[in-house]
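re the bet — no i am not wrong, look at it urself. input seq straight from the record:
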Amino acid sequence: MIATRTQFADRATGTLPARILIVDDSAVARAVMTKVLAVNARFAVTGSVPTVKSALAFLLNNNVDVVLLDIEMPGIDGLSALPELLIAARGAHVLIVSTACEDGNAATIQALALGAADTLEKPGVGNPLARFSEALSEKLERLLEPKGSNVVTTRPPVDVAPTAGDFDLVAIGASTGGIHALSHLLRAIPASFQLPILITQHLPASFMPYFATQLAVLAGRPCVVATDHLRIRPGRIYIAPGDAHMVVVSIGDGAAIRLKTDPVANGCMPSVDPMFESVAKVFGARAMAVVLSGMGRDGSAGAEHVTKNGGSLLVQDQASSVVWGMPGAVIDRGIPAVIMTPQEIGVFLAKQRRP
C-alpha cells in the first residue's frame, strides 16, 4: 500500500495517524506497546511481528512511518538487521526499544551509529509502565515533527567555502541522528588530517566513554572525553562530556578546553552554542563549524557568532537528516552556510587541511 504525497503531508501535520510497525519476539511486549500507542490518536499500529524476517515481508507491501525494533530476537538480531530494515522501510524512522539499551550500554551507540533515529530502554519487571509510556510517546512525537519550516531537499550551496588551509579547527554540533551522520563524516576524512576536531553531541554522560571509543575507531585517530584545562592538540578529537558545555580558551601559545555548567537559553546540556561562540572568539576567521542532524535550535545562535567573526559554516542537508531541526534552524536564521551530506562534508574538510 503506497501512500500518496498528500497522505505523507497529512501525517506530518497530525491529520492522519502515523503508522507504526512493532518488531519484537515477545508477544507481551508487542501487546504492551500496542496498548500504550492506542491511547494517542496520532499513532496507529499497522503491523506487529515477532521477527526481522516477518518485518521485511511486511515492509514489502506496506509503508510505515516508524519501526519499533527490539535488539535481542531469535534468528537475526535487531542490530544486525538494522541496515537492511532501514532500506526496506523506505525512509521510516527506526526507534530501538530494548532492554539492551540501558543507560551507557554499548548497544545504544552501535544502534545510533548504524542509523537508528533514537533508542529507548524497555521496562523490566517492577519498572513503572507509566514512565515508559510517556517516554515512548514523547520520542515518537519528536521524531514525527516536520523537519523544518524550510522544506529543502536540494538547495544550491552558498558560495562561502574557504580556500585550502583557511581554518585551524573544526567544531561539530549534533543531536538526534547525529551519531549516524558523524560515522559517515569521519570515515570520509583520512587519518592524515591533523586539525583538531571538537564535537558536542547530545548524549547522557554515561554514554560518553563508549562514544569516544567508537569515534576513535571510525576516525582512525585518538578521541577523548574532554576534561577541564585539557590542551587542544593536532590530530585529535575531543567530545563534550554529557554533563558540561565544552568551550575553548586561548592560552597564549595555543588553545585549551574549559568545561562550563552554566544554564544556556536553549536548555541543552551539553550545548553546541557555547562551543561555537568560544571557537568564534578564539579562532575568528580560522574556525570551521558544522551542524548535523538534531532536534531543536541548539547551535544556530553559536553559528551566527562563527560567521560574524569570519569563520565558515557547513550544515547537513535535509534529505539525509533524521531530524532537520538544528540544521534547519541555521537556514531559517539566514546564516550563510554550505549545505551538504555528511560524507560530502567529510570530503570537503579533508581538502581544507593545512599543508
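see?? Residues 5-143 form a domain with the Rossmann fold fold (CATH 3.40.50.2300). told u. also The mean pLDDT is 88. so pay up
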